[in-house]
Amino acid sequence: MARPRRNQNEYLGPAIFSVCLHVGIVILALISWPSLSKPDPVKPHIKAVIVDEAMLEQMKQALPKPAVQEKPKPPEVDTRKQMEEARRKAEEAKKAEAARKAAAERKKQEAIALKKKQEADKKKKEEDKKLAEAKRLDEQKKAEEKRKTEQKRKEEEKRLAEEKKRQEELKKQEEEKRKALEQKLIAEREQARLEKAKQEELALQQQAMELEKMLQQQQQQQAAEKQHQQDVTELERYRALIYEAIKSKWIRLDGAKGLVAHIQLKLLPTGELQSATIAKSSGVQAFDQSALSAAYAVRKYPVPSDSRLFEKEFRNLTLIFKPQQEF
Amino acid sequence: MNVLSVRNILALVFAAFIVTGCASQGTTEDTPTAQVEDSSGSDATATGMGTDSGLSEAELAEQQRMAEEEARRAEEAALREVRTFYFDFDKSTIKPESRTYLDAHAAFLSANPNQGVVLNGYTDERGTKEYNLALGERRAKAVQDYLRFKGVSLSQMEAVSFGEEFPVDAGHSEAAWAKNRRVVIEYK
Amino acid sequence: MQLKYLRLMLSGLVLLLSLGVRADLVIEIDEGIRGALPVAVVPFSNKSGQPLSEDIAQIVGDDLQRSGDFQLLSRASMLSLPGKGEDIYFRDWSILGQRNLLVGTINYDAPSKSYKVQYELYDVQTQQRILGKVVGGRQDQMRDIGHSIADAVYEALTGIQGVFSTKIAYVTLEQSKSKTLYTLEVADADGRRSKLIFKSPMPIVSPAWSPDGKRLAYASFESGKPAIYIQDVASGVRTLISSYIGLNSAPSWSPDGGKLAMTLSRDGNAEVYVMDMRSNSLKRLTDHWAIDTEPSWSPDGQSIVFTSDRGGGPQVYMMSSNGGTPRRLTFEGRYNARPRFSLDGKTIYYVHQRSGFNVAALDMESGQSRILTETEMDESPSVAPNGSMIIYATQRQGKGVLAVVGVNSGSKYTLPAQFGDVREPAWSPYIKK
């Protein structure tokens, strides 16, 4: 179904408006993005592990136990094997030595370490305290910061949320507007459709009315036609009668082919001739004369008794004398 | 086509010769028969009379010849009495029965070149006057041609037509009309 | 869609209806009846104080009756005898079924010593006067006046010029035991007041009027053979035109009167020649061993029709008046001769043989021919100058008489019997005074 022009024009306005609005929104969205810069990246937290005696012990335990010197094995008959064994033993002794050394070193180191550690621990404790303090401060700060950021975030979130909300709101509004427009359009379309339907219905109604009127007219016409047909039949009948009457009285001249004369008759309802005049001459006086004479020679013209038909057709009558053949 | 026409011409010529031969035989036929008859007659009388007539043979022969001559002339004259020749409706052909008499006229006229004749042509009353005038003339001319052919000089003859005029029989029947369709030889 | 169709139907119906709503019914009359117009010619009222030698009304009535176009009311039926318009009681005539009424009065005008004939023609039905005139003349001109009135009435009611004032020329043959006499005579168209033109003991044939109606050409056998003469009708002066050896006959004037066609057989057989009257030069038109005779000119002078039997029997042919190859016109029957053109050049009248001989008419355009006469020994048709009647020679009870037949009307009459045989009629043209 084609949209009526009218509606199309109206739709254009709001469509443009809607588009503009959407674009505006889009633009706005884009603009707000840069202003709303990326939130401060979260600073990596120091992950401080609290070391205590227990843990230390654990750590010790973890250290590999020094190697237990093993009893040398009875020498094997295999010299090579003995050598190898010896070597192995030597190596092992070395290794053990090394290991002892290492262990001693390690112990030393460990003692140092331990001292260090203790010192460290002390320091650490102090540091830890400091740290704790610092941490506390930091944490405070952090908390503060966090709070701040949180706040900020919250604010941001809030803002975002608000923004979002706003946008959503806008969107919603947009949506609503769009919806409204759509609704409007739909409504309009609907209305248009309704209009059209209404019109069509009107038209149909009108048609129906007209049809009915026509039917009525048709009936009337049919009646009139029937009458007319009757008239025509009557007309033809009387026309033929008059034709024959005139023909039998018209004494034709030779060489009259090609001549045409019009005689105007005025009849009375009785069929009598009131008057006959030459309405159009043939140019030959004798021919006109013969036509007039024929008209007068018909004493009584056959006319219908129906006065309506008589008045309509027969009161004024024209005879056209137009011979078709030479004699 | 050419061959055919040549043959035709030859045939015509041949036929003409034959006809001429026959014709010439015809004209001389009449007189010999008469003569033969006469001579036989005179022969009879001659033999009947015997030798004591006193006339010489030559004189007898002369007598005989003169008698024959006389008879011939009489016959000719009798033939020439017939002066009217008839025709069929709208025709100018000479009828066969007319020939004997026409020939007698021809013989006489050709023997007497100073004798003039008028050939009067007529028609019956039917048809139109002027056409009948021409038809009468054609009949007269037909007779004229025949006589000319028989040796009569043109200067001796005059062909005149009266058409419908001067009918012999004023009746309106076939019989009457037949009598009026004629050519009359008028000796001047 | 439906709407449109319905609208169409509606308008159609309206149109149909409107057709019937005209005020004037029109009836076309394409045919009438062939018949004679009823006319009453009332005996003219003689107010001249002197008896008249002629009954003018009778002359008028007879002329009109003879034309075949009128049916005259007998005098015995007349209920009143008005002499002029104001005396007419129209009902006396309408009840008798009359359509036209002629009344007249004759007065004598002493100063001019002439008679004044006043006549009026009325339409009985409309009571309108159609004609009204006064004609003057002497006693011996009464017949002429009568004929002129008949002409006027004829033309007013038929549209065609009348021929009642024209003349006819013809030949009579008087034959008795003691004498034979041919006479060439000229009479009124009704056969009355014949005047001797020429007489001879020998035949006279083919009289032909000059186009001005003042001279007659004819063939005369006075010298023993046919020769063509031209004679002035008024003065009687004769001129020998042609006397060649053989035939000199069938003279025919060209429409302008400058040439004479004729039949001559000087070249051996009957041929058509044309003689120029001014230069006397002779031109041979036909060249055939057959008979070519009875030439006649077409009204426009361009053609000559003639009789020829070149086809075996007499038939009608046509050729250019300058000569040239003739064209055969008649194909029905074995005898067709003596052609004459109609006034309009569209018909040829000629003699045709069936059982007897009749006058026939050949329509040039359609090639159709029809027989015009019921008599049976017909010859020499001659056309009246208005083209509506033909005079010809025929026989009645064994005697030659002249008869007239209407070309389109029912006219058929024989001219009053004369002594002897009458033949060779020639209808004069309208004579210019």
Helix content of chain B: 55-70%
Structural category of chain A is mainly alpha
Average pLDDT of chain B, rounded to a whole number, is 80
Residue share in helix of chain A: over 70%
Number of H/I helices of chain B: 5
Oligomeric state of this protein: heterotrimer
> What is the CATH level 1 assignment of the domain at 250-321 in chain A?
Alpha Beta
- Strand portion of chain B, in percent? 5-15%
Secondary structure class of chain B reads alpha+beta
Unreliable runs of chain B: 19-51
Give an overview in words.
The complex is a heterotrimer of chains A (327), B (188) and C (433). Chain A has 327 residues and is mainly α. Chain A contains five helices and three strands; from the N terminus they run αααββααβ. Chain A has a domain at 250-321: Fusion Protein Consisting Of Minor Coat Protein, Glycine Rich Linker, Tola, And A His Tag, Chain: A, Domain 2 (2-Layer Sandwich), CATH 3.30.1150. Chain A is 71% helix and 6% strand. Chain A is rod-shaped. Chain B contains five helices and four strands. The termini of chain B are far apart. In chain C, strands 2, 3, 4, 5, 6 and 7 form a six-stranded mixed β-sheet that branches. Chain C is globular, with a radius of gyration of 27 Å. The chains are: A mainly alpha (327), B alpha+beta (188), C mainly beta (433). Chains in contact: A-C, B-C. Chains A and C meet through helix 3, helix 4, helix 5 and strand 3 of A and helix 1, strand 1 and helix 4 of C.
